[in-house]
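Help wanted!
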Amino acid sequence: MDQTTMPLYRVLDRFKNKKPVSFHVPGHKNGLLMQPLPGEGLSFLQYDLTELDGLDDLHHPEGAIKEAQELLSAYYGSTKSYFLVNGSTVGNLAAILAVCRPGDRVLVDRNCHKSVLHGLQLAKARPVFLFPEIDGELGLAGGFKETEIEQAFHAYPDIKACILTYPTYYGMVYDLQPIIEMAHRHHCLVVIDEAHGPHFHIGAPFPASAMDLGADAVVHSAHKMLPALTMGSFLHIKNAQFPIDRLEYYLSVLQTSSPSYLIMMSLDYARWYAANFNAEDIRYTMSQRKFLISRLKEIKGLEVLERGDQDPLKLLVSCPGVSGFDLQSAFEHAGVYPEMADLNFAVLVLPLLKEGMAFPYSEASDRINRALKQDFPKRKVRKAPVYFSGGVAGLSLSYEEMEERPVEWVSFGAAADRIAAKTVTPYPPGVPLLMPGERITASHIERIKSLRAYGAKFQADAHFKHEQLAVYL
Ligand SMILES: Cc1ncc(COP(=O)(O)O)c(C=O)c1O
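Answered by r_m:
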């Protein structure tokens, strides 16, 4: 191995020199929204410090970090708020471990990020999955039927906690408040993974925040939608009855003992940014968005999805009949990088712009226009099977049983009706298509094949390439 090379530095540097336009996370948009910060290039590193005298300690905050977290808590109206240096992942893990003891029954959104599943597995909880409704035409997951949730509470009166994702990766929202109220009537604590909604608390036209809808714990990926460094997230507790001692214990166990001051500094900045985002800034952000949409709509063949039940900072664009993956590639060839794609859409994450901030919307739409005029690979989309829509179901095996069971690898063809032993996750969005303990159906396999045929990226074991899945014996 050549120890004189720095491969990661090399690719990052090359990428930066291409002057890419960012429509993806993190929210600081290649630093564009962070220009008022140090602004002197590498002098940024002067802020990469440690627990020196006067610099406080994330794991025992008494000074500047305590003050910054208190400002965060005051802004979001929480009982207590925390800076997280390992993303919403650690927020979900710690919140779940705090509220669940082994064997506890938990109601969980099936459309959840893998970190939620990992939390449940570590806690040895007994999940009851709530399957959101899927819009059959667009293939987008939305909210839940309240009657199904009520039925779940009757079928399982011992449910201790409820963990939901709001909004989805695509920015879709649903009527969360009645669900939270129902869970509270059943004496459940409600944890909301609002990773994609830290800006909701700014107010209209952004959807209502779970912080304002009665949730007991809310996790925010500040780095996704606010100008913060990657991994910078928030965790808010909004109920004095929440087991805060357990939560703080798990945060201290799961987070590094050397938290990055750059990340923490960016979290202080992100809080400041959101808290000082005023009516003119909102108007400006929305007018710039409108400008982008109007330019995109002028491009032949390109469609922009506009819906009322969606975060305005998530823009779903499509070329009817062409896969979202192909559209994403065409954009990328033109130097415009979407956050993700699926069979139907490329997903753009728009910036929260303060009044007067320049963002290259015009350049981006010109590039997209040029790219789509050229011939690019266009694979027709066949409708992929929806592998769930509505309903409630537990796992076929408990986490304890799974630990004991041997595993074998079988071909895709032989996997239907067996119990999955490993997670299969298209990434992004990081929502497992199959999870351990779940019974595999023909629709799962069809969907996996479909996504693979269009070049979706998967986080899955190497065997997956040989069209094999791990199942329990
Ligand atoms: C809904 C949701 N929750 C949690 C996470 C994990 O967030 P982080 O990357 O901040 O750890 C993600 C990441 O994509 C996500 O989409």
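OP: Thanks! One thing I noticed: The two ends are 40 Å apart (CA to CA).
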